[in-house]
Amino acid sequence: MNTPIRVAITGAAGQIGYSLLFRIASGAMFGPNQPVILHLIEIPDEKAMNALQGVCMELDDCAFPLLKGIVPTSDLDAGFQGVNWALLVGAVPRKAGMERKDLLGLNGRIFTGQGRAIARNAAKDVRTLVVGNPCNTNALIAMTNAAGVPARQFFAMTMLDENRAKTQLARKAGVEVTAVSNMAIWGNHSATMYPDFFNARITNRPVPDVIGHREWLEKDFIATVQQRGAAIIKARGLSSAASAANAVVDTVRNLTTPTREGDWFSVAVCSDGSYGIEKGLMFSYPVRSNGKDWSVVLDVPLNDFSKAKIAATEAELKEEKSMVADLLGK
Ligand code: NAX
């Protein structure tokens, strides 16, 4: 048996946590031979800590063979001590009357403290995936406050958008979802994200050739993917949780296993200026992994339609960055 991997999850008693923890402990994230120790971080609030205790009892009651320990805590130093992965899920949801700027400031402050605590306590190889919204900018805040931790080890999640896009394309084409590949989400995890159907493929043929219906692709498809989160809230009365947890599992698996030949996956990483995107923004790109390290796929052709969509989502990220300028570290 391998040495256990330590995985911190913030917001562990929340909705996404309730789906995510059990998938990790069952081996879905790191495979059937990799034991894990879960560091479950919540706010120091009686209700949250009681809920967390209940979740720990349920994890115990699963008798997962791979689960070698649980560290439930509201202390960031204990929470991030020696962790190899930090999954930053916890954040305050947007409430009625709250402006985006208020949400950015409120949640941003959470990520300054967590970034610093990761730098102080985590294992050298720690990789951090931010899920809590606005996730790209929260990841930027955590990354710039985690002095000494390489920027390459920070990510924000756009995999749920990729999975949503793949299913919509498969439905339209009447094929299995596994037939869809090369589905890149560009930019921000927000309503400006760009699901790039031009470069996506169905059984290795360009999506526009297979689907043909250009207006559906340019309008309905993009809008459905961009608005899917809102549609789920409307239907369920709650935001997506199980599908979000599934996307966390997919993101970590994609980063830790070699990407299939010719394919790519979507994750926001710190821009090095690729595709002309401002350096330092957390921007979702098509990415490949060799199982240990990742790289942005650099030769993806972009037409004027795609360039305009990418410029719009970049502009939004620049604006978010300017709104949290006082929270950015190095
Ligand atoms: P919940 O409100 O159910 O749970 C959030 C949990 O985080 C709560 O238990 C709360 O006590 C805890 N929390 C708040 N501040 C914390 C802090 N400073 N430290 C530790 N824990 C803290 O939300 P849930 O549905 O689980 O969603 C969590 C976040 O994921 C939200 O910000 C949400 O917007 C975001 N999402 C991101 C997605 C993505 O694709 N990137 C998709 C799903 C989801 O909307």
Structure description:
The protein is of the alpha/beta class and 330 residues long. The N and C termini lie far apart (39 Å). Bound molecules: ligand NAX. The site of ligand NAX has 29 residues, from helix 1.
Q: What's this entry about, in short?
A:
It contains eleven helices and 14 strands. It has 330 residues and is α/β, with parallel strands linked by helices. Strand 10 and strand 11 (205-206) form a beta hairpin.
What's the arrangement of secondary structure elements?
Layout lengths: L4 E6 L4 H12 L9 E6 L4 H17 L4 E7 L2 H5 L4 E4 L11 H22 L5 E4 L4 H11 L8 E3 L2 H15 L6 E2 L2 E3 L7 E3 L4 E2 L2 E2 H5 L2 H13 L1 H9 L5 H15 L8 E6 L11 E8 L4 E3 L7 H20 L7
Parallel strand pairs: 1-2, 1-4, 2-3, 4-5, 5-6
Antiparallel strand pairs: 7-10, 8-9, 10-11, 12-13, 13-14
Helix pairs in contact: 1-10, 4-5, 6-8
The protein binds ligand NAX.
Number of strands: 14
Walk across the major sheet and give the strand order.
3-2-1-4-5-6
Poorly predicted runs of 5 or more residues: none
Rounded mean pLDDT score: 96
Task: Bin the helical content.
Answer: 40-55%
| First-last Cα distance | 39 Å
Bound small molecules, by name, code or SMILES, are: ligand NAX
- Rg from C-alpha positions? 19 Å
Strand content: 15-25%
In DSSP terms, counting alpha (H) and pi (I) runs of 4 or more, how many helices?
A: 11
Report the order of strands and helices. Answer: EHEHEHEHEHEHEEEEEHHHHEEEH
Alpha-beta content class = alpha/beta
Task: Characterize the overall form.
Answer: globular
Largest sheet: number of strands, sense, barrel closure? 6 strands, parallel
